[in-house]
Amino acid sequence: MIHVVFNEPDVEVIKKAIELDASLSGEVMLIRDDYAVGPLLNVYTPEGVAERKDWWRMIFAGGDHEGIVDEGKVNDEEVLLNIKEALANDEAEQVWIWAAQNKHDVCGYYWLVGQLSAFQGRIEILYLNNLPFINEKGNIFYPDWLSQIQPREFLKAKKLARPITTSEFEVDADEWNKIAAEGKMVRLLEGGKKLIQRDVDYYDADLTKYITADAQKANKVINAFLSKNKETTGDAFMLWRLKELAQQPHFEVQGELKGLKDFDIKKRTAVEAAE
Questions:
Q1: Residue 117 to residue 147: CA distance in whole angstroms
Q2: Contact (Cβ atoms closer than 8 angstroms) between residue 246 and residue 258
Q3: What are 128's strand-pairing partners?
Q4: Do residues 267 and 251 make contact, with C-beta atoms less than 8 angstroms apart?
Q5: Predicted confidence (pLDDT) per residue in 150-209, tens digit
Q6: Are the C-beta atoms of 145 and 10 separated by less than 8 Å?
Q7: What would the pLDDT profile of 38-81 be if each residue is shown by its tens digit?
Q8: Residue 125, number of CB atoms within 10 A of its CB
Q9: What is the pTM of this model?
Q10: I need a labelling partner for 22 at 20 to 30 A (CA). Which of 121, 213, 214, 217 fits?
């Protein structure tokens, strides 16, 4: 059995669940890229993959994660190839795709599922959306991420595994191709598996709310946004957006527009902005 997840913390929690239940034994594979942001056009072609990597290089440039693209740590195409080879070499092999109700997991699912259609009947989905679980304090909660679920709770969740249907393979692949063709840069989860798209500056207005008249480090602004805003995304993307905002005349910057702790930003007064 191959377990596929879309967030690094999810790998550990699935492994702990496997330790509790031998029937779940298998390899845990991670799809690393965040398909909820960035270009998707021709994403299954070498040209599309290269364009997406170039986009991430631009996002990371000068920041805390600069160079990560060229380290080869994020290589979903290789992970996919390993999954396909395992399925081709063993007709008894199965893939379980684990996803929680968040845009990151759902986008990862859409990216993956259309590429596994040749193995229908052996690909199962466990979409843990709007399902109650018990937390460490014994209270019921509805997790947004798999990593929020206690390992023992996965032993109940495994009963939800079901094969992805022929219709889903077709419909979901068509939906993903439609999304990719729209050319938008930000994707949001509206409910279920329904995604909507927005322009690249979608988060800017809310991010601006956390820039005050007092100078703050970039990381403080972004942490406030991530902890308080309803819709969020990764800190690397938000750092890039903050750098873009910082170049507008009504903001003042101290330091270099590089990493999270390399510069301070504040709002200018009306007089300062006019000058």
A1: 28
A2: no
A3: 100
A4: yes
A5: 999 988 888 889 999 999 999 999 999 999 999 999 999 998 899 999 999 999 999 999
A6: yes
A7: 999 999 999 999 999 999 999 999 888 888 899 888 899 999 99
A8: 21
A9: 0.93
A10: 121
Token output for 108: 């990862």
Q: What is the mean pLDDT of the chain?
A: 94
Query: Is residue 72 left, alpha or beta, with left meaning phi > 0 and alpha meaning psi from -120 to 50?
Result: left
Residue 55 structure tokens = 């986009």
Contact 122, 93 (CB under 8 A): yes
